[in-house]
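Q: Fold this one first, please.
A: Sequence and structure below.
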Amino acid sequence: MTTLDPQQVLDAIRASRGGYHKLTLLAGTSGSGKTRLLTQIATQLDLPIINLSLHLSQRLLPLTRRQRALKAEQTAMDIIDEHLQSGLCLDNTELLFDPALRLNPLSFLQDTSRNRLLVASWNGTLFEGDLRFGAEGHPDFFSHAVAGVPVITVSRDKLQLHLAS
């Protein structure tokens, strides 16, 4: 775990381009500064930034509950492909955690980043090597070990890089 300055954040993201997964996650609770940091990253690296939950909800809304579960992953990938340039920043990824969609958000982001640079916000925490979303006992609670993906934890006073092997 290393405390970072903004230039080191950009360096970590650039370095991920050479990895199996070209994904960097910005993990933090609501109000921690993820969106502000993601906007700075998008500007510095000349990447588009999209609100994934907004785009995904607009596309899934006309579908039945069953159709949403069947088409959520491909629909999210289509949205990413439509906005992708040399890479893409994803903000507001919370809809990926909706239990009705039956997605594994971490696996989805990793799989999607195999051939493209993604920087994604994660509205949650990194705890003992597990990425978490939501509160234990809540229907949308998600906890999964993270490996092979740099995670930058964002809090109001510091940025820290976590590299899990």
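Q: Good. Now the second chain.
A: Here it is, same layout.
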Amino acid sequence: MALEYKSIHPGVAIIIFDDNGSVLLQKRADVGLWGIPSGHVEPGETVEQAAKREVLEETGYHISIEKLIGVYSDPASQVFTYPDGRVVHFITTYFLGKINGGSLNMDPIESLDVAFFPVNALPKALF
């Protein structure tokens, strides 16, 4: 049986590496899984503004956008079912970001944990 989803949202996701090549991941409070910082675009925002806001909210870091990685919309990878039963189809703009300020200060409503992981040693519970 196919999933029934009734909403589509613009989203952003930001990949950030440290100087050692490790990737920044956030353990999301909404689903309890690790993933790259990401979220919704709010009315009146550009995707770049949304990316910077989401990273700041979720990690405490200020970033610059280095480049556009791509825009993804395939339901096979962009439809998510939340614990409350919502099923949402995202059209997600992925960016490469770079930390240029701030400090680790996660909002417990957004994040359970934030850490850098070597790309060959990612946590098992990925979003």
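Q: Anything worth noting on the second one?
A: The chain has two helices and eight strands.
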